[in-house]
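Practice problem: N-acetyltransferase domain-containing protein
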Amino acid sequence: MQNTRFGSTESTRRHQLDMLPRTDLVAARPVTPDRLGELAALARREIPGVRASEQDLAEFLRHDPNSIFVLCRGRNLLGGIAFLYLNCAGLDALLLDEFSLYDPPRKYLARPDEDVAAIYVWALVAQGRGAVGLGNVADILRGPRFRAADYYAQPSSSDGRAFLGALGFTPVPSFQPDLWWYQRPWNRLHQVIAPSLQLVETFSERGAADARY
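Answer key — structure tokens:
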């Protein structure tokens, strides 16, 4: 899913992302090759600007086969969600707007056997009850590899912003335009003042007036 923005979803209940309950109504599982074409078509139809093809998704999965999930009820595809799992260098580069989210360099992505420094929501689309399945995805991303990683996202519409706010995301000052941040509840206990010390240092060097909000 080349587009880095949120698509539409019908769920607007106010819940923290990590508090969303698991459900048996909708299954969430890593996408399999036989569903890539269907998922790409759904993303192109529902998310403005998406041009991802089945081949694009297949190439992306070659780096990390657990980075795209489908939301299904039986065989009925209700949606999907794709992530960029960033390493420490990737998180700093995201905040400083130093790489294209349409084609992220592999050097900024965590290896499949490496702990993740940040989870960027690359694209999300959910129809009907599909959004309920996000609780199952959130449960997977509470696993050891992802537990220390905060979430980041860019909404593409007012509905997307409202949805992010309902999940506990807030806008974060950065050189990346319209970037939203969700801090994991256990990270809040450590009283993290800013998501990146390098970002703070760069603000001091460049001047906060140059930052885009």
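Discussion: The domain at 17-210 is CATH 3.40.630.30 (Aminopeptidase). Students who identified this feature from the tokens alone can consider the problem solved.
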